[in-house]
Amino acid sequence: MTPELRFLLNDQEIRLTDVGASDTLLDHLRIARRLTGTKEGCAEGDCGACTVLLGRLTQTGMIYEPINACIRFLASCHGCHVVTVEHIHSPEGGLHPIQKAMVENHGSQCGFCTPGIVMSLYGLWMGNPDAGVTEIETALQGNLCRCTGYEPIVKAALAAGRAGGQAMDMLLVERDRVAAKLREMWGQRVELTKGDQRAIIPTDADDLAAVLEENPKATIVAGSTDVGLWVTKFLRNISPAVFIGHLMKGIEVRDGEIRLGAGVTYSEAGPVFREHLPQAYDYILRIGGWQVRNMGTIGANIANGSPIGDTPPLLISLGARIVLRKGAVRREVALQDFFIDYGKQDRVPGEFVEEVIIPTNPGAKIAAYKVSKRRDSDITAVAAGFCLSVENGIIAGARVAFGGMAGIPKRAAKAEAALVGQPFAREAFDAAAKAVADDFQPLSDWRASAEYRSAVASNLFRRFWLEQSEPDLPVRLKYAVGE
Question: Which domain range does residue 156 map to?
Answer without folding.
Answer: 92-168
